[in-house]
Structures are given as C-alpha cells and as structure tokens.
Automatic annotation (TrEMBL):
It is a multi-pass membrane protein. Coiled coil: none annotated. This is PAT family beta-lactamase induction signal transducer AmpG. One of its GO terms (molecular function) is transmembrane transporter activity. GO terms for cellular component: membrane. It comes from Ancylobacter aquaticus.
Length: 450
C-alpha cells in the first residue's frame, strides 16, 4: 500500500471513529439517555432500597420476601401495552403528542407515588407501603413501555446502537442513584442529626426529584412522526386494541416450541432474581452497615456491572447465540455461590468486594446476552412493542412471583444453604436451553424463521 493510500485509509478510520463518538451528542440520542436514567430510578425504590429500609426497621424476613410481589406490574405490562399504542392521554396527548404525553403522565405519576411511599412507615403501615410500592412499579412499567416505543420511533437507524448503549448505561446510573445514592443520603441525614423516623422520607423525596431528569427530557424531546400506515386515531379504539393484542400474541404462540420458549424466558434469569430478592437484607442482616452496603454493593458492584455488560456484548457478538446463553447461564449459576462463601466469611469487607464483583459481573453478562435473545425473538416488526413487553414481563416473573418465597426459605435454611439453593435454581433454565438447542430453535432464529 502506498503512503497516499495509507493516509487516506487512516483518514477514513479517523472520520469513522469521530462519527461514532459524535452520534452520542445528537439531540435525539441525548434525550434517550436521559430517559434511560428516569427508567432506571424506580426499580430499586420498590425493590432493593425498600428492603434495606424494611430490614433496618426490623421487619421480618418473611414479610420482606413477600414484598417482591409488588413487582407484579412488570409481569403484566403486556396487557396494557396495546392501550399505550391506541390511546392518547387527555390534554397531555393533545399538547405534547401521543408518546410525549404518555411520558410526562407516567413521570408525574412516579413523582407522586415515590414521594407518597417515602412518608409511610414499614412497621406501622405495611399495607400503605405495599400500595405505594405497587403504584411506583405500575408507573415504572408503563414508562418502560413508552420509552421503548419512543426510542425505536425517534432514533434513526444509525443512531439505534448508540441510543441503546447510552440508555443501558444511564439506566444503571439511575439504579445506582436510587439504590446507593438514596441509602447514602439517608445515612448522611442521620449523621446530621435528622430524626430517624424522617430520614427515609427525605431520601425518597430526593429520589422523586430525580425523576425530573426524565420529565425534562420528555418536554425537550420532539414527538416522533407517526408511521405512514398507522390506523386513524378516531373510531373504535377498543377494537383496534384488541386486534393488536390478539395478533401479537397469536403470532408468537403459533411458533415452533412456543411453550418451551416462554418457559425459558421465565427461568433463565430466575437464579439471579431469587438471590437478588434478599441480597440487600443479607448484607445488612449479617452485620454490615448502610455506608458499607452503599459503597461496596452499589459502588463497586456498579463498576463490575458495567464491565460485565461490555463483556456480555463481546461474547454475544463473538459466539453463536446458544453458546453465549450457555456461558451467561453457567456464570450466573456459579456466581450465586459467592454469597454462600460470604455468609461463611461473615463481616469481612474484602470478601464482600469479591462477592459483589463476581455476582454483578456475571449477572451483567447474562443480562446482555438474554436481552440479545429476546430482541432476536421480536423479529416481526408489526408486533415488536407488544411482544417485547410480553417477553420482558415474563422475564420479571422470577423477580416477583417465584422469588417471593425467598424469605421463607432463608428463614428455614440459613444464608449459606439458601444461596446454594438459588444456584441450583438455574438448572431448569439450562435444561430448557438444551431442549431448545436440540429442537433447532437457534438455527431457526439465525435463519430468520420462527
């Protein structure tokens, strides 16, 4: 190659690199990133952060485990996903447009629900806490539906990868803010001498204010154009919603091995969800304080999760999808045993750091590969939004219904045995993976079939 040719090639490579980086500064991509932060906020507020609050208030483990059921809306969001497509929010829809109207509505509802939840007492008013957490989860699940649709419709093809990458990173930052951020803030309020009965209320009020990031993004965004073949907005809304829902579900259920696919979606991440239901209560319960929890579990764990996400992307690109799922599934299964080791080690900060790095790194690898699999299942563009909502809702079953028994099991077995059981819980998902592989499911996906 001549010097001129080499220089030209280098210039093209540099231009390509600069263009790849510059896409993150596009207005549409930045809006999606901010919405990712807002989407990541609510999950911990009705999950891990809430369990820390309840554990500190000395609510019993059985009750804490049952609170996993407040995540039920994530399981059933596919039911009202067609409604989000068919209906406009009164007033807001007319002012902002269909997608932005729903975004603003869900974020306003989130702000109210999070603030209300923070003023409840887990000991004196457990049913009020449960209702508040359920309302937070419902608004959050609806926001997820809208943000997914908004992201797909507003980003150009060349912006989709950058938008998704930025969204996932910002989602994790949002989870960190409502997890470690709120816990650290509560601990700081205690140091300042704030009454113990009020510190969690102030922490949740701060989290409610953080939702303003997504609200700002929704107001600054442009409404994506409606598809050229979109049905008219007037007329028989109920009929359009029903046709959309029936078409999406029937198309999926007529696929080869449909039942096995749905069971696999439910069970692949179950071992992670089973252990995660009590991981926060475990760390506090064996003697670590809130500051250590926030610094190690959320701080070090956050970095490990980002690294694991990158590693999962590399694995998903380098290997066939079925092989990548085997890697992710086995890593998830083995990583839960690190918590059994931690229970044996007791209050040991270096050991906790190792445990959290292993669990978050392996869990993130499994999540990225699993999302790649779900995306591959949603190849029919006529039903992508509803089918994606259905599959992600099924994936949340492990985090809600199945994991709700975690408290009972932990009480009966102790921490060491409990986390060993969560590791064994990965085996049904791996068995289904072997079955689908033997039935040629992954060959059909690779070929674009069903």
């Amino acid at each position: 190659m001549t010097d001129t040719a080499r220089n030209a090639a280098a210039a093209r490579d540099e231009d390509g690199l600069l263009a790849s980086l510059a896409v993150y500064l596009h207005r549409r991509v930045l809006i999606v990133v901010l919405l990712g932060f807002s989407s990541g906020l609510p999950l911990a507020l009705s999950g891990a952060t809430l369990t820390i609050w309840m554990a500190e208030a000395q609510v019993n483990l059985t009750t804490i485990g049952l609170f996993a059921l407040v995540g039920v809306p994530y399981n059933f969001k596919f039911i009202w996903a067609p409604l989000v497509d068919a209906l406009d929010v009164p007033l807001l829809g007319r002012w902002l447009g269909r997608r932005r109207g729903w975004l603003v509505f869900t974020q306003l509802l989130l702000i109210l629900a999070v603030a209300w939840l923070g003023f409840q007492d887990p000991v004196l008013s457990p049913w009020h806490v449960a209702f508040g957490a359920l309302l937070v989860a419902t608004a959050s699940a609806t926001q997820d539906i809208v943000v997914d649709a908004f992201r797909v419709e507003s980003l150009e093809v060349r912006e989709q990868a950058a938008g998704m990458a930025g969204y996932v990173a910002a989602y994790r930052v949002g989870m960190l803010a409502s997890g470690a951020g709120v816990v650290l803030l509560v601990a700081w309020f205690e140091v300042l001498g704030a009454p113990r009965a009020e510190v969690w209320a102030w922490g949740y009020l701060a989290a409610a204010a953080m939702v303003g990031v997504g609200l700002f993004a929704a107001l600054m965004a442009k409404e994506p154009p409606a598809p050229a073949d979109a049905p008219p907005r007037e007329g028989k809304v109920a009929k359009r919603v029903m046709q959309t829902a029936v078409g999406a579900f029937s198309e999926f259920l007529t696929r080869n091995s449909a039942v096995a696919i749905l069971l696999f979606v439910v069970l692949f991440k179950f071992c992670d969800a089973f252990a995660g239901a009590l991981s926060g209560a475990f760390v506090i319960g064996i003697g670590f304080d809130k500051a250590t929890y926030a610094g190690v579990v959320k701080g070090v764990g956050f970095a490990a999760a980002l690294a694991g996400g990158f590693a999962g992307g590399v694995i998903a690109r380098a290997m066939p999808l079925s092989t990548a799922l085997w890697v992710g599934g086995i890593l998830q299964m083995l990583s839960n045993l690190a918590f059994s080791w931690q229970a044996w080690m007791g209050v040991n900060v270096p050991a906790l750091m190792i445990t959290i790095v292993v669990e978050n790194f392996a869990g993130a690898i499994g999540t990225v590969i699993f999302v790649a699999y779900i995306s591959a299942l949603c190849g029919n563009r006529a039903h992508t939004a509803t089918q994606y909502a259905l599959l992600t809702a099924l994936a949340a079953v492990g985090r809600t219904f199945l994991a709700s028994s975690a408290g009972f099991i932990a009480v009966e077995t102790g921490w060491i045995v409990f986390f060993a059981i969560t590791s064994v819980a990965a085996l049904p998902g791996l068995a289904l993976l072997a079955y689908l592989q033997a039935r040629g499911h992954f060959r059909e996906l690779a070929a674009g079939g069903r």
